Each structure stands twice: as C-alpha cells, then as structure tokens.
Amino acid sequence: MFHPAPKSSSFGFPRSKNPTPEEEMNSILYPTCAAMAFLALIYKLRVLRTDRSVTQVALIGNFFFLSVTYTVSTPAIWAATSRTVGVVNFSGLLTQSCVILLTACQQLILLHLSYKPEVAWRKAIPRLIALATALIAMVALFSAATHQREAPNDFAVTKAQYYPAYLTVYLLAYAANQIDVGIMCWRYAKIAPTRWLRRGLFLIAMTLPFAMIYIGCRTADIVAGQFGTSGHAWEPVAQIAVTIATITKTLGWTLPDWGRYLSALWERIDCYRAYRELGPLHSEVTAQVPESVLRLGPGMDLRTRLYRRVVEIRDAQWALRLWMVPALTTEARQRAAAAGLHGIELAATIEAVQLRAALQAKALGVLSAQHTDFPRTAEPEDLAAEITFQRKLAHAFTNSPVVTDVIRQSTITPGSKELA
Residue 109 and residue 124: Cα distance in Å, rounded? Predict the structure, then answer.
C-alpha cells in the first residue's frame, strides 16, 4: 500500500547546512533540463494550430512528460509534490512513470514517421501494451514500499537497495525502449526527406550510449544494494549521463524546426565571407575595366551585391581576353599540375595566371597579336558553383605561389619582369 508522509517540517528529508554534491548537481542539472523541455513544449504547441497529426501530438506529449519529470525531480519541488499528495516518495513514482510515458510518445513519433498510419499503429500497439504492463507493475511494486524516508536526491539509489524489483522493471522498460528508439532513429535518419530532420534523428540516436551509461549505473545500484552498500559513488556519472542524453534529445527533436534558421544564418555569413574574399580580385580587374561595374544604391542587399561582384569579375575577364596569350594557358597548366593541383584548384590557378598576365599587359599597353578567344577554363553549372569557383580564383590570384612563379619566369607573358 502507499505510505503516508510523516508530518514533520522536513517531510522526512534531513536538513543539511552543507549540501552534498548530489544535492548541488540535482539543483542545477534538473532545473536546466526542465527549462529546456518546457521551452520546447511551448515552442511546439503553436504547431497544433495547423498540424494535429499523431506525430506532432506525440512530440508535444514527449516534451510535456519530460518537463514534468525534471520539474518534479528538482529537490524542492520533489518534497512539495510528495507532501501535497501525502505519499512518501510519490514524486519518484511520478517522474519515472512520466519517463515511461514519454518513451511511448517517442515510439509513436518514430513509427508514424517511418510507416503509413495503419502500419504504424499496428507496430505501436504491442509496444504500448508492453509499456502499460511495465507501468502497472511499477505502481504495484511501489505500493508495497515500506521505506519511509523522502529521497529527492537519491531515490533511485535507495530504491535499488530496498526494492530492486521496482527499479528492475523500470530499467528493463526504459532500456528496451531506448534501444528501440535509437535503432529507429538511426534507420529513418538515412531516408528522412529533409536535411535537418536527418540531423535531428542522428543526434537522438547518438544519445543511446549515454542512456546505456545511466542504465548501467542504475543496474550497479541494484547489485550494490544486495551487498548492503549503495551506488552513491557513481551517482554523479548517472546524473551527468542522463542530463546529456536529455538535452541532446531535446535538441534533436526540435532541430527540424529551428535548424532552418541556422541554415539561413550560415548562408548569410558565408555570403558575407564570399563578398569579402572576392573584393581584392574585383578591385584589380575592374580598375582596368571600369565599364563592367554597375553602381548600386546604398540600400542594396548583400546577396545582390555579391551577385553583381561575380558578374562584374566575369565581364572584366571577357574584356581582358584581348591581352591574354593562348600559349600561357598551356604553360600555366603544366606548372600547376606539376605542383600537384587538379580539378577546381587547377582551373582557378590557370585563370588566375591569365588574369594577372592580362592586367600587366594592359597596364603596359602590350596587346597580343593572337589573343585568347575563350578566357575561361572552368564552366560552373550554377550560381552557387560559380561563387565557389570565383572564391578559389580570388585566392589563387592573390596568394598562389604557382601564379607568382609563372608570371615571374614565363617568357611568353609581356612585361613579366616588371611584375616581378
């Protein structure tokens, strides 16, 4: 039967002026996890206005039970909850029951992501029955408890000593479902339709080792309890492992929602970097071919400015072909290949040599009798590939020792001695 709580001011929890390391960790880690779960819950609730699918409802249920678990696990709230109900360590039963319920939600999420609804429910029913059976067994074993001390900081450790059957049922259910969830996440991540969903599922799958560490610590608690000792020595390991798993899973479940904002931020940062990297090359070529430059207003967005910079570099390159010597392309290719360059780096180096030679020749007024008809070595397929190539070109133009050596040593390039 459930045992009523003693009516002492401390509710059976010994007062201590010097909190133990377990108390300090619980007072930090558990509220942190609770806050993250609650924020995720609030964030996902808005989805119900437009999407009330099983997947979304189960995901909200997952965050709800997770927030309850860690809120109640906070020592002060643990004692207050048990006192309100009037049952010693009721908070322990409540939190571990919530863990079983949130694992059921996770099963529903992954099964409905992986299969059609009718197949998902057919696969979910046996799992839900098994979890319900475990939950009933946990309640029955908890009701047989006679341990009277409230244990907000070491509930699992003390239960391992006095009621190993209760904790064994809980751990078996928890372990089986963590393994099942981890495997399903890993499998579905390989075929998930979006990049951030794949990343989120992989992140969840990666928490399995931490869950196993927690389960290992709790199993060790049971073994230690049978020898009249306790698992307090490794309790910090269990706390840290389950906290890492919880935080990482919360990030993984929500990553498909907020990951796209990271993509947008990174895209803007990369756009700015590309714009800066193309600056020196753009300044060099447009200084001698100013007619290729289109003046933009001060309020023009960065993406448009980058696009114009890319176009103006190519326009200037075409205009400079009249000062490009065809034989120099062959020499540059041989020197670059000998230096171990290939692919896009090779093509960028060849174009950089031609551009520097052409700029030098134009500045000296030396027009080639036989100029290059087609100044490009590479043909990127789209704008993104073009920007990538021009960044390689800009780097080679400014920093490549191969480009410098070819220009300095070549007898084909007009004015090469002056450039050196």
Answer: 10
Task: Report the share of the chain in percent with pLDDT over 70.
Answer: 87
| HEC per residue, the chain | CCCECCCCCCCCCCCCCCCCHHHHHHHHHHHHHHHHHHHHHHHHHHHHHCCCCHHHHHHHHHHHHHHHHHHHHCHHHHHHHHHHHCECCHHHHHHHHHHHHHHHHHHHHHHHHHCCHHHHHHHHHHHHHHHHHHHHHHHHHHHCCCCCCCCCCCHHHHHHHHCHHHHHHHHHHHHHHHHHHHHHHHHHHCCCCCHHHHHHHHHHHCCHHHHHHHHHHHHHHHHHHHCCCCCHHHHHHHHHHHHHHHHHHHHHHHHHHHHHHHHHHHHHHHHHHHHHHCHHHHHHHHHHCHHHCCCCCCCCCHHHHHHHHHHHHHHHHHHHHHHCCHHHHHHHHHHHHHCCCCHHHHHHHHHHHHHHHHHHHHHHCCCCCCCCCCCCCCCCCCHHHHHHHHHHHHHHHHHCHHHHHHHHHCCCCCCHHHHC
Chain centroid, CA 279 distance in Å: 32
pLDDT band (50, 70, 90) for residue 44: confident
Contact 268, 190 (CB under 8 A): no
- Structural tokens at position 360: 């030098």
Inter-residue contact 361 to 323 (CB < 8 Å) = yes
pLDDT > 90? residue 348? yes
pLDDT at residue 418, as a whole number: 39
Indicate the Cα dihedral angle 26, 28, 33, 36, nearest 10°.
160
Q: In sequence order, which residues have a C-beta less than 8 Å from that of residue 383 and are 6 or more positions away?
A: 307, 310
Whether the pLDDT of residue 320 is over 70: the answer is: yes
CB 333 within 8 A of CB 358: no
Neighbours of 386 (CB within 10 A): 18
Mean pLDDT, residues 41-57 taken together: 85
Q: What angle do CA 291, 356, 354 make, to 5 degrees?
A: 95
The Cβ-side half-sphere exposure at 109, using a 13 Å CA radius, reads: 26
Q: By C-alpha distance, which of 80, 75, 63 is closest to 25?
A: 75
